[in-house]
Amino acid sequence: MPKPLLLPFDPVDRARRSWRRRWRHDDSMAAATSVMRVQQLLIARYDEALRPHRLTFARYEALVLLTFSREGRLPLSKIGERLMVHPTSVTNIVQRLEQAGLVERTPNPLDGRGTLAGITDAGRSVVEAATEAITALDFGLEALDADEREQLFTLLRKVRVHAGDFADFADVDELADVEG
């Protein structure tokens, strides 16, 4: 994948200045737009790092989620809930992983209409190798030192709590398992 041409200007800053001339809250717009722009840049880097493993970041996330689950398998509905993706997207992700031999689908014995996705031994091997690739690029955050990464996490966590992403029981999180 060829690297994109570098823009001769900061597009977020340019949008911020235009926004400021027309509306207020340019600081909020600039921060939100920066988050979205960084997310796009990071996903592109992740997908590039994961390409040799025949994964996209979305498929990698699903494999990691299954790896962290107690039994190595989860209902498709739980995968969608945890990854915050539409059921159709979960089905597509799991189908692609199944075609690659990285997961297998089985009927959910607790829900006659539901399906479980379980990680295979091949999936476990791929997720280990893919994780090495992602961590080798420091999740794309090598421009920040450890303190800055922690600060970024803390600030964005406040936004997630305020948006209702999860109940903020700080110490309970450490006790909860992926399936909990």
Could you provide a short overview of the structure?
By secondary structure, the protein is mostly helical. It is 59% helix and 10% strand.
Keywords summarizing the entry:
8 helices; 3-stranded antiparallel sheet; Arc Repressor Mutant, subunit A; mainly alpha; globular; about 180 residues
Structural commentary:
- This protein has 180 residues and is mainly alpha-helical.
- The protein has one domain (11-165): Orthogonal Bundle (Arc Repressor Mutant, subunit A).
- Helix content is 59%, strand content 10%.
- The protein has a 3-stranded antiparallel sheet.
- Strand 2 and strand 3 form a beta hairpin.
Tell me the β content: 5-15%
The fourth-level CATH homologous superfamily is Winged helix-like DNA-binding domain superfamily/Winged helix DNA-binding domain
Q: What is the arithmetic mean of pLDDT?
A: 90
Number of domains: 1
Going across the major beta sheet, what is the strand order? 1-3-2
Instruction: Please tell me what the overall shape is.
Output: globular
SSE blueprint:
Layout: H1 11-22, H2 26-50, H3 57-68, E1 73-75, H4 76-83, H5 87-99, E2 103-108, E3 111-119, H6 121-136, H7 146-162, H8 170-173
Antiparallel strand pairs: 1-3, 2-3
